[in-house]
Amino acid sequence: MVDGVFAYSPDPLPPQLTATHEYVELNGDAMHAIGQLSVLESWLDSPEIVLSPLIHREAADSTSIETITRVTLSDLYRRESGVDPSETETERADIGEAANYVEAITTGIERVESGADIDRDLLCDLHEILLRGVRGEQRRPGEFRDGLVGIGEPGESLQDARFVPTPPASVPYALRSLLQYIRSGPTYAPLIDIALIHYQFETIHPFWDGNGRLGRLLVMLVLYDWEVIPGPYLYPSAYFNANRDAYLDKLFAVSRDGAWEQWINFFLTAMAEQGREAYAVTQDLLTLRERYREQYQHDGVVIREVLDFIIEQPYCTEPQAVDTLNRSQPAVNSAIRQLWDDGVIEETTGQQRNRRYEAPEVLDIVEPYNM
Q1: Is the dihedral of CA 239, 241, 245, 249 positive or negative?
Q2: CA nearest to 214, candidates 227, 231, 197, 229
Q3: Cα gap 371→366, rounded to integer Å
Q4: Is a pLDDT exceeding 70 seen at residue 126?
């Protein structure tokens, strides 16, 4: 009790769990789906080509769980090509949060890949990226909260909040215990432990804002750090977003009723479904890439590089392609003109200058998974 308000502090991990047939079955299903991604990764000569759409999809879905705007991949790609896809300040802020999420994912993966621990410094740095220049920027990005926070309806008092997370004085110790648990490696099957870790982080709620996004990003970082996945291919937010009420209800039920089994089953189902979805998206993108390569196999290396670029960045400009590929402007312009003439890309502005292009066949693959 803090100032007359009950704030919930979770017990340190791990809880005592009893293995059930459903745990075993769901975990096996999820690990099989993840195993397919691991096999697929071994075939890729340029993983970044398929990783970009997956990362952008996760950023859009994770942000949309907490915002008014339904952010899409197209919003993010348009923004990166220099177009403002928003019509209101609210939309602009929501899309900005998703763009920050892309940067946070990329930074987190690079840091872990370089050998950094998942520790307090990393989480604080990623939190600062998430809140940079968007709502919450004034709420001490990268620093633990120093007061109580309520989870419930906007404007609701602490006394009426659905849930009040860990008291601020206990946050550093609770988070330290969680990070030690992560570094020690899994106690149960890895996916079950990651379900426990996600719940624990959200319940500690160490920052004033951005905890949901950072907690979902933490899922991916632990998957990668524990070598459950070979790269950042698997993200839970599409499933959590599609089942938002169940996601929040099951998290709350663990704190209220100790309902670990229901939460873990939900989480494992999410991982299995997102593993299959990521595999399907990746396969479709690779099939499209192979078709393009066959179509343009005699047209030189630059056009094949531009084709890879538009799969990675399906909304783009000529200067973006020139900068990314480090090729001359005339060579890139010639390749873009040929792809435009062939209908592989479409010009979206109708202008003679500052043209922007989109790749409809790429978007047909990645956008439906974000609708």
Answers
A1: positive
A2: 197
A3: 10
A4: yes
Q: Round the CA-based radius of gyration of the chain to a whole number and report it.
A: 22
Q: For residue 11, what is the DSSP state?
A: P
Residue 347 DSSP SS3: strand
pLDDT tens, residue by residue, 56-95: 888 888 888 876 667 887 888 888 888 877 767 878 888 8
Do the beta carbons of residue 325 and residue 309 sit within 8 Å?
A: yes
Q: What is the DSSP letter of 5?
A: B
163 forms bridges with which residues in the sheet? 151
CB 238 within 8 A of CB 258: no
Structural contact between residues 34 and 229, judged by C-beta atoms closer than 8 angstroms:
yes
Name residue 316's beta-bridge partners.
357
Pairing, β 315-317 against β 346-347:
unpaired
Contact 320, 356 (CB under 8 A): no
Written as one string, the DSSP assignment of 308-324 is HHHHH-SEEEHHHHHHH
Spell out a b/e string for 336-352, using b for 16 or more CB atoms within 10 Å of the CB, else e. Answer: bebbeeeebbeeeeeee
CA neighbor of 99 nearest in space, from 141, 138, 134: 134
